[in-house]
Amino acid sequence: MTQKQGAADGGMAVPHAAHQATFRVYYEDTDLAGIVYYANYLKFIERGRSEWVRSLGIDQAALRAEEGIVFAVRRVEADYLRPARFDDLLTVTTRLLALGGARIELEQAVMRGEERLFIAKVVLVCLSREGQAVRLTVGLREKLSG
Question: ∠ CA 49-43-33 to the nearest 5 degrees?
Fold first, then answer.
């Protein structure tokens, strides 16, 4: 989303530093060829997003219990660049791209050292208990934008 698009739908473009979380590849993450099974990259970036949200001081369980708000993935655009292997130490980077009324856009990457293995653009939406889109609260928006 460009800054102009963000402003048009009530959102705003947000330049933000990347959060990093490190994970080890376990045997269970690999396929018969000894490389990480493609679907597991989605698990890795989910863990990275969870750690990013936690680092911002957002307790997702409390958010759901107290305000009835949850985050749901609406869209993922993914590129698999190089394979990860058993016992690799991977770093998942998560960077906020933009905030809309009920929408959060992120860029995520899975790295092995300086080598980029996987990249994704992820769009999250805020949902109510009933599964309806709800606007980000002021407090949540402030925490997310840093």
Answer: 145
